[in-house]
Structures are given as C-alpha cells and as structure tokens.
What does this fold into?
Amino acid sequence: MPGLALPGASDRASQQRQSAAEMNRRCWLVALSLLLAACGDEQSPEPVPVPVPKSAPTAVPVVPQVPPVTVAQPAAVTPATVSREIKVEPLPRLPPAPVDLSLPPQLIDELTAGDSPASVPQAESLLPPLFVEKPKPESSFQLNGRLLTNDQLSEDYLESVEGAEIRLQYKH
It folds into this structure.
C-alpha cells in the first residue's frame, strides 16, 4: 500500500543524506587542498633582525623570531621607473629584383607546333551543368491562375482574399 511507510525508512533516508553531505564536504576539502598546493611555492622573505640598543645593559632573554605566516598574494603591477629608449632602425631597402615572365623556347615550340587550344578535347565534367536554363517542353496543356481580392485595404491579407481563378487551356 502506497500510504504506509516502512519502519526505519526515514532513518535510512536521513543517513543517506548525512553520508552525501559528508562526501560533499570531503570533496570540497580535497579540491581546496589541491588548489592551495597549486598556488606556488613562494618563499617568505627573510626576517629582518631588530637592532637592540646598546645603551641599556639589561639581561633580557633573546627569543628567536618566527616569521609570520602570510598568504601568497599576486604581485602588484607597478610601472617601471626606469625608461629605456629603444631605437628602431629601418631596414635598408633592397633594389627591386628583375622578374622574367618569358616562356622557355622549348615550350613555345611545343605550343605552336601542337593543336590549337580550341581543338584540345576538354575533360569530361563530373557534374551536370548547374546554371544552364532548361528548355521548357512543349505541351498541349497549360494551367494558369490568380487570387481574387477585394479593393479594400485591410491589416490581414488573407481577409482580403475572396476567391481564386483557375484557367485550363488545351492547345490542339
């Protein structure tokens, strides 16, 4: 029966939710530790020793200073204070190279002795002619038509259509 709940079903559901939440926390912890490990191993700056005044001879125990723990921050971009002038020298212009577009004499002899380009057979095309007007076949039957509209201007064109006219013509 769908209305009855099994004993302990809510306990199992809450345990599943708790284990899912715990798994989610562990995933976040692993992801955070990986991100922190990938941030870089920048070494902290060396601590600067504090000068002790020599005027007062007192017996104070010296405690070694522990460098403060800092979180690595991206280095601030500062404009360079020293400016360098870069001198760009233009490249020297080369004289134009002579270009020879003449054909070799052997090729000229072959072209003049052979057939004219118009008589050379063209390679057979793999595609049919795409942009050639196709001749209309002569038929003894012809079909024409038009829409009949009223002369009133309306917002919807379909409302102005009153009918259609079809003309069938037979030629003998």
In short: The CA atoms of residues 28 and 34 lie 10 Å apart. The chain has a mean pLDDT of 75.
